[in-house]
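agent: user wants the full assembly modeled, not chains individually. Plan: 1) parse entity lines 2) check alphabet per entity 3) run joint structure prediction 4) return tokens. Steps 1-2 passed, two entities, 406 residues total. Proceeding.
--- entities ---
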Amino acid sequence: MGTEQKATNIVWHQATVSKSEREQINGHRGATLWLTGLSGSGKSTIANILEKMLWERGVRSYVLDGDNVRHGLNKDLGFSDQDRNENIRRIGEVAKLFTEAGVMTVTAFISPFRQDRDRVREIMNDGDFIEIYVKCDLDECEKRDPKGLYKKARSGEIKEFTGISSPYEEPERAEIVLENTAKTAEQSADEILAYLESNGYLA
Amino acid sequence: MGTEQKATNIVWHQATVSKSEREQINGHRGATLWLTGLSGSGKSTIANILEKMLWERGVRSYVLDGDNVRHGLNKDLGFSDQDRNENIRRIGEVAKLFTEAGVMTVTAFISPFRQDRDRVREIMNDGDFIEIYVKCDLDECEKRDPKGLYKKARSGEIKEFTGISSPYEEPERAEIVLENTAKTAEQSADEILAYLESNGYLA
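--- prediction returned ---
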């Protein structure tokens, strides 16, 4: 019995479902679409439109954003430099798990520091990390100010606000740059979808 | 343009894919199957067999275990009481995200403390958290000792090892209790599958 059980265990362990098996059945790759950009640049809106588009094509996708991460997994983190790094590190690790599970994962966080984003790229397999710079002029973001955060940053109520009192480090090797100042979020989501199609991520 | 764009955003935000929409299309519910039990009780083996069974039925599933969590998301955590609590808290939050994404999520961690497991239950929606006690006599676990950990715990090389020098708090309201001492892991996985079927988790 001992030997038989052991042998059975080995067979089953080998049989664990791999990423490539999931991808074959799903008909699309698992990957992380990492949106980065200023507050108000349109990351969350684009992410949600993109998720809907992917959904309509039968692609398994999921959006990680402030709504489902900041009050849950990362609720113990504040806004110190160390906590911001840890915030992005954890999001990167969770995105990796979703990616391994075969999901087209979309993240929508300012993630202003190049080093933090590069660290996430490094833990992923080649091609699994797609950095998408949602480029939008600060003036335009501040004019939109959907959450009234720029106003608070200007008045000093919020300290170290990206673009105002804390730097945003533009990506140097983003796979996609969305010139989102004068575009609708739908157009930007279309661009991402086109990238996924022409690079073999979708069937 | 400003008004039109806003209106478009509202429509799209409403259109974000909900858990119940995912479940309808997937043909099964998203939930967390939380395996708890001593080291060597069979949690990982059962989890892997179960994943394979679910996979063969077209169920979207994913296993969270030491292999993909301890060296990634939770690599900053040690084995102090505080770190153990945080370890389980984070795993619970990630399991919740996977569950919201419509995935049948299987976790395989000793998770010896009742309070930690109850906290995970509390953050989940009713019915989304299924606690599964993989019950196995300490003697049997120690005899199996697949990773040689009991030996190290007995020699004092590992401190605060569950069952030897640190308590295991048995679940008081587990949805499933698997009497795994004398059973094969296949039989235990079958029992979980039967529970999912008879409780409406699978189509």
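agent: reporting back. The longest helix of chain A spans residues 81-100. Confidence is low (pLDDT under 50) at residues 1-15 of chain A.
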